[in-house]
Amino acid sequence: MSEFRVCAVIPTYDNPLTIELTVQRVRAHVSDIIVVDDGSGPEAKQSIARLASSSPVVVITRKTNSGKGSAVKDGLREAYARGYTHALQIDADGQHDTNDIPRLIAEAQAHPLALVLAAPVFSSDAPKGRLLARKLTVFWTNIETGGAKIVDPMCGFRVYPLQATQALTVRGNRMDFDPEIAVRLVWNGVEVRSVPSKVRYVQASEGGISHFRMVKDNALISLMHSRLCIEAMGRAMVRPWKK
Ligand SMILES: Nc1nc2c(ncn2[C@@H]2O[C@H](COP(=O)(O)OP(=O)(O)OP(=O)(O)O)[C@@H](O)[C@H]2O)c(=O)[nH]1
Ligand SMILES: [Mg+2]
Fold first, then answer.
1. Fewest CB atoms within 10 Å of the CB: 17, 27, 136, 225?
2. Distance from the alpha carbon of residue 67 to the mean position of ligand 1, in angstroms
3. Within a domain: residue 124?
4. Ligand 1 pocket: which of 91, 122, 199, 209 to mutate (most atoms within 8 A of CB)
5. Domain count, the chain
């Protein structure tokens, strides 16, 4: 593989109070940053404009909101086109512990062909509904990948090997994207490495905001797992014939 070059990709949709701080904290570890503004409203747009005028950051602006997955896809495509070998993906809502970035990157450097996923360690205030939905998606990804290779397929804190991601077609454009790309990478023979990392639910007073739509996003995730399970069965059936 060519020389290890990493940038950060930060998808953001209406994180007016946390996007600047997130970029500042990420920059302590990764100097090159791509922010994908997924159709944010005026207040968040102002924060992003302030950010862009005060620091070297690439901003991709999507006119309308079309989902975290499509925002990340844009960011990964841009990162690859700019010659990076790896992209650190991190949410813009301040949930992830940026102090763990060096550990994720060191893991990617040691295993440059692998997908490095943060394995979230949640604080006690994590909403029970979200934790349950996570357990379900872990259950399905274990079936789809034939074993517990992916500790947490939902966590948006990860390092991608870009060549492998660009060789894929991922259908999910919203919250169904993170699990789908992880499963498809495993199907393409990519190893998964996990690094534990604390995740907190930032108080609304500190700008913590979740855009996760309990019904719609969980329905999309279930639909995505149904598709992947059918594909997994198809793959299992043709495998013996390939030998
Ligand atoms: N939900 C959502 N997030 C988006 C979208 N586009 C970009 N994002 C960004 O994706 C990241 C994750 O979004 P969150 O809404 O926090 O979703 P989450 O972290 O899976 O859900 P929580 O655990 O409830 O916070 C944030 O940086 C968002 O700003 C979108 O259309 N919807
Ligand atoms: Mg979040």
1. 136
2. 8
3. yes
4. 91
5. 1
Question: Looking at residue 54, what is its pLDDT?
Answer: 86
Does ligand 1 lie within 6 Å of residue 222's CB atom?
no
At residue 87, the pLDDT reads 98
Q: Which ligand is in closest contact with the Cα of 156?
A: 1
- Dihedral of alpha carbons 139, 142, 143, 144, sign: positive
* Mean pLDDT score, 35-59: 95
Ligand 1 centroid to residue 108 C-alpha, Å = 24
**Cα 167 to Cα 17, 19, 121, 185, distances in angstroms:** 35, 30, 31, 9
Q: Is residue 205 part of a domain?
A: yes
Report if residue 189 sits inside a domain: yes
CATH number, position 74: 3.90.550.10
pLDDT, position 133: 87
Q: What does the mean pLDDT of the chain come to?
A: 93
Flag whether 1 is in a domain: no
Q: Which domain holds residue 35?
A: 6-242
Percent of the chain with pLDDT over 90: 79
Predicted structure pTM score:
0.94
With helix as H, strand as E and coil as C, how does 145-209 read?
Answer: HCCCCCCCCCCCCEEEEHHHHHCCCCCCCCCCHHHHHHHHHHHCCCCEEEEEEEECCCCHHHCCC
Residue to mutate (ligand 1; options 9, 10, 12, 13; most atoms within 8 A of CB): 13
